[in-house]
Amino acid sequence: MADSITSKRDRIFSFRMPAVTMGTGARSELSGLVQPHGKNALIVTDPGIGSQDSFREIVADLEKSGCKTAIFGDVVPDPPLEVVEKCAAQAREVQADIVIGIGGGSALDVAKVAAIVAQHGYELPTLFGTDEVPQRGLPTVLLPTTAGTGSEVTPIAVLSDEEHQLKRGIVSDHLLADHALVDPELCLTLPPGPTAYTGMDTLTHGIEAYTNKHAVPLIDSYALEVVRLVGKSLETAVKEPSNMAARYDMSLASLLGGLCLKSVNTAAVHALAYPLGGRFHVPHGVANSLLLPHVMRFNAPVSSGRYSVVAECLGSDDAVAAVQKISAAVGTDKRMRDFGVEEQHLTEMATSAMEVQRLLVNNPREVTEADALAIYEAAW
Ligand SMILES: [Fe+2]
């Protein structure tokens, strides 16, 4: 089969991103960014980040600038709807003028959605899906402390619908932060495990955007740089956590990977990862790293040309082998069975993955339910 993936020059797409401030030490710019929006800030974070010195310094700096701060520190991974509701309630209670998210993808996603709910009081379930958010909420500034989801620049938030054991996405330009403030120093305390997994998520964003049925030239350029940066620096960031150059590269890769989402977006790896997260609570980056080489192998017959470019960015002549090499080097070369998934679950997972058509339609090769099952079996 020939390569079916080319960039669509006749595809008209629009592209929006938040204002970005990036640089080593850039967190010192926060109070200046907050000032025009008011004097009452709600800071959204998780307990791990909330107890760190760098976090306390950020809060102290804001207070010093005359900004009153309240902290919502109860974000958990795969945040359920109640977390967003509680966060929005606190924002209303303290009459926040601005919401500041500091943390990994979950904290930033909660901040984005809570800013909207706090302002307008929408019922969360009405916001799920694409373009269901009627209008923007409170202003937001997002500071990532991981290098993976790119949530600081995406118009996407993923929450857990616990009742249905599903992860569900809210996709709307109204979720875009007013400001992404990217300071790679905030990733210095991220342990090797999460550094590896979130980095593999970033790599997946790059690969799935570049080998995407709806690829466009502008996003291609970001996607390939994501692949190149991850190939260059993920292993170093994992093995030498205080290596600032590697942390910078990974923060940049994460941001660029975030820019690949929405207008092109991801494909079968992310679609098949959904049931792993929703049902088995496997962290997003872990789920992607388990599936990535297997989906790539499935796609290879129809995307050989694009995969050879990916391979080249990774300094190899075989994209799948290069990805597996990175995964082994950073310790993410695991199997689904290592995360509590039993073989008997695979059939229902394949059925459930088929529901993620919004991503499956992007895959270079059509994925049937039987294909999804075969991929899960290979990854199990
Ligand atoms: Fe992702």
Give an overview in words.
- The protein has 380 residues and is an alpha/beta fold.
- Helix content is 48%, strand content 11%.
- The protein contains 15 helices and nine strands.
- A six-stranded parallel beta sheet has the order 1-9-6-4-2-3, with helices on both faces. A three-stranded mixed beta sheet has the order 5-8-7.
- Helix 6 runs parallel beside helix 10.
- The longest helix is centred in the middle third of the chain and has 23 residues.
- The protein is globular and about 60 Å long.
- 54% of the residues are buried.
- The mean pLDDT is 95.
- The site of fe (ii) ion (FE2) has 7 residues, from helix 6 and helix 10.
- Fe (ii) ion (FE2) binds next to helix 6 and helix 10.
Dominant shape? globular
The level of helicity is: 40-55%
Strand content: 5-15%
Compute the number of helices.
15
Low-confidence stretches: none
How much is the average pLDDT?
Answer: 95
The kinds of small molecule bound in this structure are:
fe (ii) ion
Number of strands: 9
Q: Give the N-to-C terminal Cα separation.
A: 27 Å
- Succession of helices and strands: EHEHHEHEHEEEEEHHHHHHHHHH
Largest sheet, in brief, is: 6 strands, parallel
Structural class estimated from helices and strands = alpha/beta
